[in-house]
Amino acid sequence: MDSHRLLFRLFRAALDGADPEAAVRRAVCRPDIARVLRGAGSVGIFAAGKAAAAMTRGARSAGAVRTLTVLPRGHPARGLSPDDVVFASHPEPDASSVRAARRALRFFESFGSGDVILCLVSGGASSLVALPREGVRLAEKRRAVRALARSGASILALNRLRTSLSAVKGGRLGQTTRARLITLVLSDVPGDRAAAVGSGPTVRGRRGDIVRVVASNRAGLDAAAREARRLGWKVTRIGPRLSGQARAAGSRLARAASKLSCGSVLMAGGETVVALGARHGNGGRCLELALGAVLGLDGGVALLAAGSDGLDGTSGAAGARVDGRTLGRARRLGRDPETALRHHDTGAFFAAVGGLFVTGPTGGNVGDWVFAARGARARRGRPI
Question: Domain 3-15+218-374: which topology?
Fold first, then answer.
């Protein structure tokens, strides 16, 4: 199997390993959770985030009488009743996000003390369910969060700011009901802290509530590593979690990948950032990481950087694949990678040079993965 085919296989294996539908299905069958659900007067399901549709499907056995699922516009809602689905804005909130928050408040208020609400939270919920606290206008909140995001702040810092400006985040949505809450979280944050995912709208710290992280970036890497070994490749895991500026992370990974022996693969996961100037092009952190890596890759290594949600920034792609031939193609086409990185215009670069990795929305969201591989060598010295 050549390196590029392997990279695709590893990405698919990672998605399967962090599959939100399967993760929720397993979680609701756990004895402690199943017992609470069986003893409830009524069960409601509230799901919000990029993985909300899949998580709702995974909770079908919970016996819910009512369901509310909040998804980004354009995401598929396969298998869900249209009456139970709300579409809202992502990555920045708008009036639809406020409407979704108000509907969520009515949903939570409608359940009583003998009831249980199964809360399914994934990344993206911060934008999808947004209601500014008293005295704060939505436009002010958007500007503050946008400015912090463009500075290259981490997701944890962004969600702390969002929570401070919100009437529903930080457990405040959950505080509006007397029902018991079971919160199942698909984690895209460092440390897999449930209260940090989607700004923790239902993690309220009340006695009797249950909070579980059911899948994470690491689960995907574990599955990818098993697949690589099954196919006969040697595996190197890079830690700690990917973070910091995307270009710099790409350079570090390229140096590590240059040390791979033939028939070996390198893996890393996490979430980098990109500090944007006032003017910038189109792209995303995975594209920027891949282009940062290509400047240091040798001819025998192929690398894929991709977001588990299938959408990297404004690029329309999940990420990008590069190898030792990418720079040569760029030069022949008159494309300068340094210029693309300086102007954060990596989407246009890869659209011209090739290498965009397009999947569409995957229905999951546990951060980003990077895989690099050095293939075995054929008799004439070419990688295979």
Answer: glycerate kinase, domain 1 (3.40.1480)
